[in-house]
Amino acid sequence: MGEAMKKILTITALIWMLGTPAAGAADFLGAPVMSGGRTISQSERELKTGYGLPAARVADYYHQVFGDAGSSLKIRERGGQVWIEDFEARPWHKIVIESSPAGEAVVTITRDSWTWILTMLVFRFLGVFVVLLVLYLALSIFTAILYRSSRRPAGSEGK
To answer: Can you give the residue ranges of every domain in the chain?
Structure first.
């Protein structure tokens, strides 16, 4: 009986250890997806999931999951929505948690896109260009003012 019990415990332990990853939280593009939701829409670029919970409870779940992510994630609350944006090389760009008109939480996970990346690079380039242009104009104006105020009158060269 002792040997049979060891075999049963060993098999049970193996099944438990091998079965654990399958029972864990699902993910989309490496972003965790809270269990218990229904898929509203799914494509290669986006996953939209509805939950029969208030948006605050779903937001608490994501705050717990991403609590130790450090500075790589930015969590913002905007007008009843919670945005979790990624600033690293993860395949997903943002997670938006909002309330539907029915009062249920809707979570949208969006894929990072080259359109968004290139648009941000263009905006940053234009922003730097505008700042440099403003500095150039300000320096030109102040140089002209200093030049005109430091000129000597025409007859005072020899004095």
So the answer is: 24-112, 114-153
